[in-house]
Recover the amino acids of this structure.
């Protein structure tokens, strides 16, 4: 197996462990009344985990010059952002960095919108990097073809 | 020649982007850790001060109004400077009777005291005795130039 494919398998395994195995274990060892409340949330995270793992495999098993690699890479970045917003928004990504929790007479609000904004900036840079890498790989191919042709 | 320059320029841009992304990711993780640690350390100290001491003192002012004063010990055991504010409101049947607030700017390692004074007008004292007043306590902790933080609202009815 090439280094690139091994990287894909490694990333997919990390995604499965982080988003499927750990949340399921968390659910298993939680008191049953609490587990019942967040079961749907955990199942949704696990589904994202599986989709992300599949995208990692597609990305790293496809050719570096293939548009499929670029598309899967962009989709991965956007999906990771969505998962982060989903988890930090307690199942509602529209909360966008503000968590509001209420239990009896206590209301708790946590504000971390700035971190989400920085994360979006990082994701945009990452997409730009993926685009440049794709264009670079294509240019390299063009150059090699020109040299062989001449 | 031009093609070679274009390719090497693109490679240079990619390596710059890679470095920038790595720096931003590390910076983000560090700032999340520092913010979380600072906010929860202040929150812990203020909540223990609120629960340990019976921090409400009452007295009658010369004008006949009832004064209520409260103090909350706050300690910034975190790594970032923070602004801590607290507000206390006394309500009867949803109507605000008295309100007081205080705020403190604490650098890392600093401690201070939030002093909150409320005054309930004399004419409202009979209502206060007859009804069941509700007390709302707000605690707000902000750090990273007030960009992140936590706020807690507790309702206490007697």
């Amino acid at each position: 197996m090439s280094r690139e494919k091994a990287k894909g398998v490694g990333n997919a395994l990390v995604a499965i462990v982080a988003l499927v195995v750990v949340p399921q274990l968390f659910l298993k060892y939680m008191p049953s009344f609490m587990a019942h409340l967040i079961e749907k949330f955990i199942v949704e995270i696990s589904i994202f985990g599986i989709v992300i793992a599949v995208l990692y495999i597609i990305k790293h098993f496809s050719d570096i010059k293939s548009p499929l690699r670029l598309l899967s890479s962009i989709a991965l970045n956007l999906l990771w952002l969505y998962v982060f917003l989903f988890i930090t928004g307690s199942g509602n990504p529209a909360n966008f960095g503000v968590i509001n929790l209420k239990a009896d007479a206590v209301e708790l609000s946590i504000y971390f919108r700035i971190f989400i904004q920085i994360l979006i900036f990082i994701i945009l840079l990452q997409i730009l990097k993926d685009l440049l890498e794709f264009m670079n790989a294509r240019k390299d191919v063009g150059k090699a073809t020109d040299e062989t042709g001449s | 020649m031009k093609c070679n320059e274009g390719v090497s320029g693109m490679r240079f841009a990619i390596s710059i982007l890679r470095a920038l992304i790595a720096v931003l990711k590390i910076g983000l993780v560090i700032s999340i850790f520092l913010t979380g640690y600072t906010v929860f350390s202040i929150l812990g100290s203020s909540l223990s001060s609120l629960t340990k001491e019976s921090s409400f003192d009452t007295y009658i002012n010369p004008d006949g109004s009832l004064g209520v004063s409260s103090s909350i010990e706050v300690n910034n055991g975190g790594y970032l400077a923070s602004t801590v504010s607290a507000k206390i409101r006394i309500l009867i049947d949803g109507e605000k009777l008295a309100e007081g607030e205080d705020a403190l700017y604490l650098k890392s390692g600093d401690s201070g005291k939030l002093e909150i004074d409320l005054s309930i007008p004399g004419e409202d004292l009979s209502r206060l005795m007859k009804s069941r007043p509700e007390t709302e306590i707000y605690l707000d902790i902000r750090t990273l130039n007030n960009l992140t933080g936590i706020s807690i609202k507790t309702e206490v009815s007697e």
